[in-house]
Amino acid sequence: MRRSPETSGRLRRIPVPPLAVPAALLASSPAVGVIPAVASAVGRAGALFTDTGGYRRTVLDGRTAAAPVYVPPHWQTTGILFGLLSTALAITLATLAVRRPVHTGTAALLAPYGDSSPGISATTSPGWSPGRHCSRC
Question: Taking the complete model, does pTM exceed 0.90, yes or no?
Answer without folding.
Answer: no
